Amino acid sequence: MLRTEIKYLIGKEIRLELKQKYVLNGILLYLVSTIFVTYLAFENAITGETWNSLFWIILLFVAVNGISKSFIQESPARHLYYYTIASPQAVVLSKILYNLLLMAILSVLSFGFFLLLMGNQVVNVPLFLLTLLFGSLGLSSVLTMVAAIASRASHNFSLMAILSFPIVLPLLALLMKVSRAALTSMDWSGLAPLLVILLTVNAAVIALAYLLFPYLWKD
Fold first, then answer.
1. Hey, is 210 helix, strand or coil?
2. What is the pLDDT of residues 179-211, one digit of tens each?
3. Closest among 102, 83, 97 to 3, alpha carbons compared
4. What domain count does the chain have?
5. pTM of this prediction?
6. Are the C-beta atoms of 144 and 137 separated by less than 8 Å?
7. Which of 39, 47, 108, 144 has the smallest C-beta neighbourhood within 10 Å, fewest atoms?
8. Could you write out the DSSP letters of every residue in 51-119?
């Protein structure tokens, strides 16, 4: 039952996204323009550390802009409709999975534009792509839950930004540490603990969302 509800809710999210193409187009325009301005500012004179930092900073702001609409754009009437047809667990998991798909696409596009304009600083591409996957999962789960909380405060976007950054910053620091290793060597040794921590953090956030969202949903 839960699996069926999640499938139909994700399908609903995809249909809404295709119907409101201006939202996705706006995010893509923001992504491309930000990377292009960065390219103009540095003119290819960029170190690996700076490349890594700029990549994750841009991706963070793209994630906030892209995922903030998860609950904030929806009216109370629509929330009430969801309440009558689906369980709260299905709603929050479908939002997380859809935002994971969206963030994975945006992450790959960001990586591609960075390679095109800023040059390739990545030595270990598989490790960097794995970090992107963990980062997409972490950002989607954290920001989805924060968006749900902000939606209960008169759909306040500024509240989402205030709540999300203290939570996201430790995750971002871990992601930058792992991706920094991908920029320097092909060696995977010593990275297993960091990858396990990333996976554990992501699993913990999803578990908390699964357990706590029903109480927020009933409010």
1. helix
2. 888 888 777 777 888 888 888 988 988 898 888
3. 97
4. 1
5. 0.88
6. no
7. 47
8. HHHHHHHHHHHHHHHHHTHHHHTS-HHHHHHHHHHS-HHHHHHHHHHHHHHHHHHHHHHHHHHHHHHH-
